[in-house]
């Protein structure tokens, strides 16, 4: 998964930039498998669309960002 790939790269990153990028980040996953992968690294998932498609994922992110503005 993308999560495992990112975390593998983060382990190799001697600068710590990749892990630092996750601090304070709001994480959105596309579905339950990705959520489980993220949580296996103790990452907190903030958003997950009801339907596991890229369009719904983008919609979920947009909706969340608009809620912040209100």
Would you give an account of this structure?
The structure is a single chain. The protein has 70 residues and is mainly alpha-helical. Helix content is 57%, strand content 0%. The chain is built from four helices and no strands. It has helices at residues 2-12, 17-20, 32-40, 54-69. The N and C termini lie far apart (34 Å).
Continuous helix count: 4
Measured by DSSP, the beta-strand proportion falls in under 5%
Residues in helices, as a percent range: 55-70%
Q: What's the gyration radius in Å? A: 13 Å
Molecular shape: globular
Mean pLDDT level = 94
The SSE order reads: HHHH
Point out poorly predicted stretches: none
Intertermini distance? 34 Å
The major sheet is characterized as: none
Number of strands: 0
Quaternary structure state of the chains depicted: single chain
Category by helix and strand content: mainly alpha
Topology of helices and strands:
Blueprint: H1 2-12, H2 17-20, H3 32-40, H4 54-69
Give the gist of this structure.
This protein is mainly α and 70 residues long.
Which key terms come to mind for this protein?
single chain; 70 residues; mainly alpha; 4 helices; 57% helix; 0% strand
């Amino acid at each position: 998964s993308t999560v495992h790939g990112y975390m593998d790269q983060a382990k190799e990153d001697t600068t710590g930039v990749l892990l630092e990028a996750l601090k304070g980040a709001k994480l959105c996953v596309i579905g339950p498998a990705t959520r489980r992968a993220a949580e296996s690294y103790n990452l907190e998932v903030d958003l997950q669309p009801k339907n596991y498609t890229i369009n719904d994922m983008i919609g979920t992110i947009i909706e969340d960002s608009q809620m912040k503005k209100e």
